[in-house]
Amino acid sequence: AAAAASGGSRADNGYGGQQARRRKGPGALATGYLVIYNVVMTAGWLVIAVGLVRAYLAKGSYHSLYYSIEKPLKFFQTGALLEKYLLIAKYLPGIVPSSVVLTAFQVMSRVFLTWAVTHSVKEVQTEDSVLLFVVAWTITEIIRYSFYTFSLLNHLPYLIKWARYTLFIVLYPMGVSGELLTIYAALPFVRQSGLYSISLPNKYNFSFDYYTFLILVMISYIPIFPQLYFHMLHQRRKVLSHTEEHKKSE
């Protein structure tokens, strides 16, 4: 996941960097709130991870595990909207040197996939592609929220920093693949049912084809995904190399 990357110790812990030195970060009250928020979100995604493992052990199969974590997934993934409002609207410009547009796209695309695709098109909930993005999201979010929590407390273990800037190399393409395959699987059902589509004539003189909209959403991944991915690769080189240099200088 490419949102909110930064550089070493306080300056590269996800809530610092050059922009933090130019602008004030969150105050004590906001920091306290963000610590609590990130702890809760870490715990929530751990609940999802445990739910997946327990369901797999009980069923002996990875098929249709979505139903075992559907409710917490919807709750905690939607909860990211609150986080992004606070960070993007209030704190992000001063403490997290990443693109607001790219960050917003990433969050909204996940919430959109959770509700407007997986929830709305029941037929895709048994697709293996759903498990693909759920597993990728779960691991990513556990690492990310742990990263934010320890960063705010100024005590970031190297292992978490390394995981934050390394595991995305596999997890991000894995998640995007699952998302795209799930949208693709939903297309025939959306076309057949006319889900969320508005046809003419109507009193608003407006039409909307949800099937076409989903295709456009898939196309939008083409320019956005490389930007997010290469941004993280750049951040990885900067952050981890800075950390190694810091260790050598001690």
Describe the structure.
By secondary structure, the protein is mostly helical. The chain has one domain (28-244). It is 74% helix and 0% strand. It contains eight helices and no strands. The chain starts with 17 loop residues before the first helix and ends with a helix. Residues 1-22 and 92-97 have low confidence and may be disordered.
Topology readout:
Layout: H1 18-22, H2 28-59, H3 66-95, H4 100-119, H5 128-152, H6 158-164, H7 168-193, H8 210-249
Helix pairs in contact: 2-3, 2-5, 3-4, 4-7, 5-6, 5-7, 7-8
Catalytic activity: a very-long-chain (3R)-3-hydroxyacyl-CoA = a very-long-chain (2E)-enoyl-CoA + H2O; (3R)-hydroxyhexadecanoyl-CoA = (2E)-hexadecenoyl-CoA + H2O
Pathway: Lipid metabolism; fatty acid biosynthesis
Protein name: Very-long-chain (3R)-3-hydroxyacyl-CoA dehydratase
Defining traits:
250 residues, mainly alpha, Tyr_Pase-like_PTPLA, disordered N terminus, lyase
Spans of at least 5 consecutive residues whose pLDDT stays below 50 are 1-22, 92-97
Largest sheet: none
Order of helices and strands: HHHHHHHH
| Average pLDDT figure | 85
Distance between the termini: 31 Å
Number of domains: 1
- What best-fitting shape do the alpha-carbon axes yield? globular
**Tally of strands:** 0
